[in-house]
Amino acid sequence: MLIIKNYFYYTLILLIFIALGFCRLNINKNTNNTYNEVFTKIENVLFKNVSIFCLILTGPQYRKSRVSYQKRTWIKGCNSYIYISSVYDITLPSIALKMKEGKNNLWGKIKFGLKYVFNNYYRKPFDWFLIADDDTYISMTNLRFLLITKNTSLPYHHGYKVRWRHDDGRAVQYVHGGGGDVLSREAFKRFIRYSLNNPKKCNQKGNGAGDFELSYCLTNVGVHVNDGIDFLKRPRFNPSNPLMNLASTYNHKFDKTLYRLSEGRSKHGIRHMPDYPISYHYLPGEMMLSIHYLLNIVNVIGKMNSLSKMLSTKKCTKQTFLNETLIYLNSLGNKVYTN
């Protein structure tokens, strides 16, 4: 049944592309701006149909150097969000967990944050729940492009998949937290209700590697990692920054570790980088601004993206083009999120 559903969803996406292929915008000037207007409206439809709550892990020392840049860029793409820190700050906004900052306490921070989000936001109409670091950049539109084909009532856990054996003998495939974790409503519910407070299924202490422990708890209630790769097997969730992806010499120590954890799937060079990246990690604030500019603002004269290239020679107005496309997008959204 799941295979049939996925086939149906991908068929609908194909229909979107066919609709785009039936007409070409009959505009002589400012062609790039016209495409931007159209896809901004499509982006708004995705925003309404694929609702995402964002939980961001931070500390008070990163308020200006990281958080301020996230709020100027991709955080606006979350339907709602909250930061978790050791200090309460209504201007972010952030909730506070009174514990020492640091990687050793990351698991405790994640547990506290997820319990807070579940108790205060799960009953609201959010389809997906994103967990990310304060030095991560997320393309929310590309993330929604992935999620629009998924059913949030099924136990999905999306992210960059790695494998690690803990010192205590536990071994599990888990999502590397640097690239972000995305939980469906069903996965989130299973974690809170059936795993979090069960010592046989979940680490009850506050210390430990947060990303490993989260995946371990989820795996024990039937929620397995879904690797966010494209059809060329290129990772769309990236636990490193673009410079690390392009050249192994940029950060050799981290790169060697990632290559081992990903079982050899971490490769370098432009041809191994995805057309529709979802996330990058280890980013200073200035690099977040640069990525935001390159992904969302910059144009090259005469160049169109792969979606635009599917437009045929048949002419139609911008509004007709938009209406036809939005009909299919709305239909797709309604089919995916009715149950």
UniProtKB/TrEMBL annotation:
Pathway: Protein modification; protein glycosylation. Its EC number is 2.4.1.122. It holds the Pfam family Fringe. One of its GO terms (molecular function) is nucleotide binding. The keyword tRNA processing does not apply. Its main location: membrane. GO terms for cellular component: membrane. It comes from the Eukaryota. Keywords: Glycosyltransferase, Membrane, Nucleotide-binding, Signal-anchor, Transferase, Transmembrane, Transmembrane helix. The chain crosses the membrane at residues 7-27. It is an enzyme of class 2 (transferase). Residues 51-224 form the Fringe-like glycosyltransferase domain. It is a single-pass type II membrane protein. The keyword Iron does not apply. Belongs to the glycosyltransferase 31 family. Beta3-Gal-T subfamily. This is N-acetylgalactosaminide beta-1,3-galactosyltransferase. The lineage of its organism: Eukaryota, Metazoa, Ecdysozoa, Nematoda, Chromadorea.
